[in-house]
């Protein structure tokens, strides 16, 4: 309905938007409902809009209230081997919106990602690799890609301080999966500033900076962090489903509008 406003003349559009705003307010009134499904539907709906709109402001408010609980629940559903494709696409879309949220929510999101990495590192890495491959790299220098790269950089610093080098392989794999050299450099800069005393990380970054070929960097990650449980192929094999193709078309149309 909202996309159809572009087909209206200015007089009809004003009335139409007024009615749609009433509908938005009515939808928000359901946010006190305890149903997990209703919360997902509300967040998914408001995440569809450009981040400069009033609808996206509603999305920010809803995410502040129960966004972390929804994302956590979706993650638990999607690590199941028999995950439903529709739920998975919904998760990707909401996570994409979450990366556009305000600074306060980014801190909550970072803590959630940290918890996910600690409990299910391989599944979490696979989800983020698919997110980057299917959505993030379609908009390589967007706010979502930048925030994701900063979250990954912070996670590297956290696990490096604990000498948990096994986790670092997963995180460097994701950082070098980013197409955006700008976002990748921001993450690496954050890591370099915080890890001058970690010889393993410093040595890896020095060698990686001299390596131009991405496949060779993945081999370097294997060499330094013994990352045997995930390979480039584990996410390169993923193909866009018809649903995902449709989602990308809708998303790009939404951004253009």
Rg, please?
20 Å
The CA-CA distance between the termini, in Å, is: 14 Å
Kindly state the number of beta strands.
Answer: 0
Could you state the order of secondary-structure elements as H and E? HHHHHHHHHHHHH
Describe this structure in words.
The chain has 257 residues and is mostly helical. Helix content is 72%, strand content 0%. Helix 3 (54-78) runs parallel beside helix 5 and helix 7 runs antiparallel to helix 8 (165-175). The longest helix has 25 residues, at 54-78. Residues 229-257 have low confidence and may be disordered.
Question: Which characteristics define this entry?
Answer:
mainly alpha; 13 helices; 0% strand
In short:
With 257 residues, the chain is mostly helical.
List the helices and strands and how they pair.
Elements: H1 10-28, H2 36-46, H3 54-78, H4 85-98, H5 103-119, H6 121-134, H7 143-161, H8 165-175, H9 181-194, H10 199-209, H11 214-225, H12 233-236, H13 242-256
């Amino acid at each position: 309905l909202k996309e159809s406003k572009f087909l209206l003349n200015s007089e009809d559009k004003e009335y139409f938007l007024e009615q749609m705003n009433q509908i938005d307010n009515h939808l928000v009134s359901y946010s006190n409902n305890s149903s997990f499904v209703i919360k997902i539907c509300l967040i998914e709906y408001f995440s569809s809009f450009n981040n400069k709109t009033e609808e996206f402001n509603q999305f920010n408010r809803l995410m502040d209230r129960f966004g972390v609980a929804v994302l956590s629940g979706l993650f638990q559903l999607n690590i199941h081997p028999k995950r439903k494709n529709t739920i998975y696409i919904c998760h990707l879309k909401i996570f994409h919106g979450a990366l556009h949220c305000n600074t306060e929510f980014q801190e909550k999101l970072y803590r959630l990602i940290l918890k996910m990495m600690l409990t299910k590192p391989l599944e979490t890495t696979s989800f983020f690799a698919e997110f980057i491959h299917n959505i993030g790299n379609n908009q390589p220098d967007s706010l979502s890609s930048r925030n994701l790269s900063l979250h990954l950089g912070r996670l590297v610093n956290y696990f490096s301080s604990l000498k948990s080098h096994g986790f670092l392989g997963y995180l460097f794999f994701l950082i070098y999966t980013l197409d955006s050299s700008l976002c990748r450099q921001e993450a690496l800069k954050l890591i370099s500033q915080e890890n001058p005393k970690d010889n393993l990380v410093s040595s890896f970054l020095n060698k990686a900076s001299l390596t131009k070929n991405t496949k060779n960097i993945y081999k370097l990650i294997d060499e330094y962090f013994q990352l045997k449980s995930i390979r480039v192929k584990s996410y390169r094999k993923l193909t866009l489903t018809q649903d995902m193709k449709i989602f990308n078309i809708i998303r790009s149309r939404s951004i253009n509008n």
